[in-house]
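INTERNAL AUDIT FORM
Audit reference: QA-55
Scope: verify that the stored structure record matches its stored sequence.
Auditor: D.O.
Record contents follow.
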Amino acid sequence: MDDDRLNHARLNRRGALGMLGALGAALAARPGAAAGAPALQATAAQTLDCVLSPAIEEGPFFVDERLNRSDLTTGTSDPGVKLGVPLKLTFRVHALNGSACAPLSGAHVDLWHTDATGIYSDVAPLKTVGQRFLRGYQVTGGDGGAAFTTIFPGWYPGRTPHIHVKVRTFSPTGAVAHAFTSQLYFDEAVANAVYARAPYAGRGNRDTTNTRDGLFDRAMIVSLAPSGRGYSGTFNLGLPMG
């Protein structure tokens, strides 16, 4: 796809999200939700409310490894993983069916992202085939929760720091019943603080910030708090299941 077609596709996607956001704002706003995030309120009889999460393209580096693990840093000696700034992420996944909202149990939540040097595992052009660092999935529990231990991702040219997330449900025969893909982003102040530390600092200044990244969506910023020598955060995902 050439640049013109790619830009056109991005504009169309953002236009659709804008219409969803206008609809959500007219229905209800979720307290504490990220600015600009479209929202749907649960019925009065329910205690939960949800945010309809924007989908963002998968990108070229997803590999369906089927690695059921919560610690994505295990099984590697890659210094770009071992020396990275620790990051703990907890997801709360909710299913949206019309105006109804409920925790989604039994869903597979996949994460994948780069090491501190901006490299993905198991990608032939990056010469990492056979390596499986910073990839894996967890199955959501009864509360829709899934937790991961990983590191803050490194940057690479043309992209702001991000983490890919894919949520899938499966039929009894193993076929994919529902699938949702998006990307998580970070506050610029946190990214700057991380990239001032080793081993990230040795790469120099990144070339792309949030506002300069054509795929960036403010609704997908995960708020992080200091935790030990790293950070931790929780993010809610609301998925349409109709």
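Auditor finding: record pair retrieved intact. The helical segments are 3-27, 79-82, 188-195.
Action required: none
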